[in-house]
Amino acid sequence: MVFPQSPPRERATASTFAEILAENLGHPDGGCTFVQEDGHEHFVSWSELSREALRRGRQLLRSGLRKGDRVALVVPGQQEFVLAFLGAVSAGVVPVPMSPPMGLGKFEAYCEDAVHILRAAGARALLMPRNLAGLLNPLRHAVDGMQVLDPEELFAEPLPGNAPQPEEILPEDVMFLQFTSGSTAAPKGVRVTHASVLANCAAIIGALRLERGRDRGVSWLPMYHDMGLVGFVLAPLLARCPVTFLPTLRFALSPRLWLETVSRHRATVTFAPNFGLALAVKHTPADEVRRLDLSCLRVVGCGAEPNHPETLRSFATHFAAAGLRPGTVVPCYGMAEATLAISFGEIGVPLEPDVIQKEPYHARSLARPASAAAEEQVAFVPCGRPVAGHRVLVVDDDGNPLPERHIGEVVFQGPSVAAGYHGDAEATRRSFTPRGLRTGDCGYLADGILYVTGRKKDLLIVNGRNHDPQTVEWTAAEVPGLRKGNVVAFTRPGRATEEVVIVAELRSGDAAAVARRVRSRIQTKLSLPVAEVLLVAPGELPKTSSGKVRRSKTRQHYLRGVLHRGAPSPTS
Ligand code: 1ZZ
Q: Which residues form the AMP-dependent synthetase/ligase domain (predicted)?
């Protein structure tokens, strides 16, 4: 059965995710597989998943939580996370997914963000496993009256017959708070409703033509991020398409495990940000590629950060030897405020970056197709067409729609748009307008296809010309000793105009020589003067929990003079 662009037929009556869980109780066939930290796999059927989630929901109510209360989840185990998340949803309690601490190096910054999230969410409870409770002691007193719950204790208890029953849940109720990744500002809690989740999941199922019985997913994406949560937990639950979950940490330690899992489970759909594709290429040598069979894949979705044309191309060619078919890499674009997906490229059509003339792009925000003779060009990967039942516009600073090939702010309209930011009426008014969601991203439309050129707030404006930071960062990262994803470009006030600063993690080589090469490369390739190249130690750049660089935070650290200059690590 092929799902149409609205919820599948047998779901026609479900208007909340709580109802979907109740419906799935009757489906012991199919389910998901959780790969454990030690590599063992554990299968859980749809009906087991629902039964256990409903039981856990009532345990949460028994602990004193009520409909609408927020419960923060710092739960690293994927199976435990899914059950706690769905449990809260089934009871009308609002889960707030949070990342677990990543590494001790950034522990202080982690606690600062985590305390901010707990306060902004007004969390009534924090659910975290016993083995993290000591380390995360600083979070205990973030919010007055917040209970700290131990899942092992709470969920192990038998459910007494008189445990409270959930109240009625409505489509417009908030289903969960998705904290934004905080790449340009402090994280804000997006109020994602049951209705917006159902609309977006149905749109994803339609756009990817997910078919029950044919499609299966593999995901290593973190579940506290919208792409891992909505894309691989909620949409598959609605479609009842099986998914195998690989722990994010296992992927990070050994990126080749991703496609090895795809090959073994005969997965048809998997997604990753651009950096995930680059890591898979780098860590899967040719002899291992030949041992894989990726002919099962229909879609390798790529989104969540700007897509580099060369990364996508090299992924497609590198894994062609494993049977990866042309047109399988599908770029996509979305954001938490849109619940998740905004647009997808076309499945089965090999990628064609849009090559435009450099001068009108920088000087007049125009995306004029480059002629073969034009010397200076810029290329953007298409983000595809908006999902069915939704619209994308590109507007100027006053909100007026712009014609095709004019760069402006991307606006998204339709039922997937979330209900605003929790506890922040002012930010909600600015972004969630009656004319649609102002995404804060710059882009243009050409033949109805969307091209995203970068975050509006991150734009480098030098001598009246616009430069997107990622092109500057990618160009700098071509210098040996630096790595893509570990370079940040921003501007600082200069005497006559803003000046470009580049901060990059130095992996190897002589700092002074690397800095000189970066400066001259940006100057020759982009004709952009660079005021300073600051090379810092590996791990020094602030990142979001989903791995995006935090340009504004890096800039703040730079201006406060708190970045440590780097010497290359001895192992690099
Ligand atoms: P977030 C079955 N951005 O990143 C699985 N994409 O949300 C379906 N910039 O709120 C999965 N080019 O963290 C469907 N292509 O950040 C997945 O990230 C659809 O600046 C993609 O404002 C979902 C991505 C979700 C996500 C949002 C910000 C955006 C934009 C940037 C995302 C991008 C991209 C350039 C892209």
A: 39-422
Any ligand 1 atom below 6 A from CB of 431:
no
* pLDDT at res. 11: 55
Ligand 1 centroid to Cα of residue 227, in Å, is 8
pLDDT (mean) for 167-193: 91
CATH number for the domain running over 351-427+437-443+450-457 = 2.30.38.10
**Lowest-confidence pick of 247-251, 277-281, 484-488, 568-572:** 568-572
For residues 230-248, one letter each, b for 16 or more C-beta atoms within 10 angstroms of the residue's C-beta and e for the rest, the string is bbbbbbbbbbbbbbbbbbb
Q: Is 439 in the pocket of ligand 1 (CB under 6 A)?
A: yes
Ligand 1: does its nearest atom lie under 6 Å from the Cβ of 331? yes
Instruction: Tell me the sheet residues that pair with 44.
Output: 32
Fold category of 459-559 in CATH: GMP Synthetase; Chain A, domain 3 (3.30.300)
Per-residue model confidence as pLDDT tens digits over 100-121: 997 655 788 899 999 999 999 9
Q: Which residue's alpha carbon is nearest to atom 22 within ligand 1?
A: 335
pLDDT of residue 568: 55
Ligand 1, residues 333, 354, 383, 471: which to mutate, most atoms within 8 A of Cβ? 333
Pocket of ligand 1 contains residue 312 by CB under 6 Å: no
Quick check: CB of 228 below 6 Å from ligand 1? no
Binding site membership of 304 for ligand 1 (Cβ less than 6 Å): yes
**For the chain, what are the domain ranges?**
9-334, 351-427+437-443+450-457, 459-559
The H or E element spanning position 251 is helix 248-253
Is the confidence at residue 446, as pLDDT, over 80? yes
Parallel, antiparallel or unpaired: strands 460-462 and 465-467: antiparallel
Q: Is the CB of 219 under 6 A from ligand 1?
A: no
pLDDT at 547: 81
Q: Which fold has domain 9-334?
A: Rossmann fold (3.40.50)
Cα of 201 vs centre of ligand 1, distance in Å, is 15
Spatial CB neighbours of 531, under 8 Å, sequence gap ≥ 6: 492, 494, 499, 500, 501
Does the pLDDT value for residue 417 go beyond 50? yes
Check if 341 has its Cβ closer than 6 Å to any atom of ligand 1.
yes
Residue whose Cα lies nearest atom 18 of ligand 1: it is: 304
**pLDDT given at position 103:** 62
pLDDT digits (tens, 9 = 90+) for 260-294: 999 999 999 999 999 999 999 999 999 999 999 99
Query: Dihedral angle at the C-alpha atoms of 81, 84, 90, 92, nearest 10 degrees?
Result: -110
Q: Residue 498: what pLDDT?
A: 87
